[in-house]
Specification:
Layout: E1 2-5, E2 10-13, H1 14-31, H2 36-46, H3 50-74, H4 80-107, H5 110-141, H6 155-158, E3 164-166, E4 171-173, H7 176-192, H8 197-206, H9 212-238, H10 243-264, H11 269-292
Antiparallel strand pairs: 1-2, 3-4
Helix pairs in contact: 1-2, 1-10, 2-3, 3-7, 3-9, 3-10, 4-7, 4-9, 5-11, 7-8, 7-9, 8-9
Length: 304
């Protein structure tokens, strides 16, 4: 069942794209992550141009995150004041990311930057997750309690001026820190097509010191609006969003997430985190290999 993608300018098997979306959705439901950091590399492996893959993945992350955000809102698990600051920073970051995207496209380096960005990002995150997961698994097997990091904001965050009270998060800190954190995820969303939750959540816990009961919901709140803004910015500036591709991905991810969530309750969380870290490292290694191998055609001539 082949479908033509008008923006990617190629034909794909719709069932394969839905299957990729289902796989990412399954992993999202099982591990509690947005999945954007896996969607873009998998699309690139399949042959989708990196620019279209990154832009379309952001729109898929928007749809996949809405239901999770609504569920946390019903449980009063969203700090709207903190979320508003993160969204403001994220929108500013997406505008900066759009400028960088256009600049790198004009220089002909956007594909390389996307590839290198994923190798560095996924490699670093995967190694940190693997280290923590191995420690937790060893402690569980040895019958020792797993050490939990103490919740407190970073000294640099405490030194920033103009403090606000974030009552739901139990914080009295400067809004500058979450504003900069939101801006960073906005730039990443524009350039790489990720929601940023796998970086945002640890930063909210260990840099800002937020309470665990509102971290996931507030992160999803920010992801929904920033990926929405990034998708609109891509549509208006880079014209790289392929709606046909995004819809196919969303169809698969919605179904896959349900199965992933059911499977997750049957596995210990320490082993889930270890499995996710290994998957992330495998994707990073595959991206690095793709950047390093010699292409079939070193030079190409395109008619004006």
């Amino acid at each position: 069942m082949d479908l033509y993608l008008p923006i990617a300018n190629l034909s794909v098997n719709a069932l394969v794209i839905i299957g990729l979306g289902g796989l990412v959705g399954f992993l999202s439901g099982m591990f509690g992550v947005g999945g954007g950091f896996l969607t873009t590399p998998m699309l690139i492996f399949y042959g989708i141009p990196p620019t279209v893959a990154a832009a379309s993945a952001a729109s898929q992350v928007t749809g996949a995150s809405v239901s999770g955000m609504m569920a946390h809102m019903r449980r009063d698990g969203v700090d709207f004041r903190m979320g508003g600051v993160l969204v403001a920073g994220g929108i500013a970051g997406s505008l900066l990311g759009a400028w960088l995207f256009r600049l790198l496209t004009a220089l002909g380096q956007i594909d390389t930057v996307i590839g290198l960005g994923y190798v560095l990002l996924l490699g670093t995150i995967g190694l940190l997750m693997a280290r923590e997961s191995f420690t937790a698994v060893r402690a569980v097997r040895g019958g020792k309690p797993v050490r939990v990091k103490r919740r407190r904001h970073h000294p640099l965050v405490a030194a920033l001026p103009m403090r606000w009270r974030f009552y739901r998060s139990g914080l009295y800190i400067s809004p500058i820190a979450p504003l900069l954190l939101g801006a960073l995820t906005g730039v990443m969303t524009m350039l790489l097509g990720v929601g940023g939750g796998f970086i945002l959540i640890p930063a909210m816990l260990y840099l800002l010191g937020m309470g665990t009961q509102v971290v996931v919901g507030t992160s999803l709140f920010q992801i929904v609006f920033v990926t929405m803004a990034s998708t609109m910015t891509h549509s208006l500036t880079t014209h790289a969003v392929d709606l046909v591709l995004a819809v196919l991905l969303l169809l698969g991810s919605v179904v896959g997430a349900q199965f992933g969530a059911r499977f997750a309750v049957k596995v210990k969380p320490e082993y889930l985190r270890l499995a996710l870290s290994l998957i992330v490292l495998l994707v990073a290694a595959r991206m690095a290999w793709g950047l390093g191998i010699r292409p079939d055609e070193i030079y190409s001539v395109q008619a004006p």
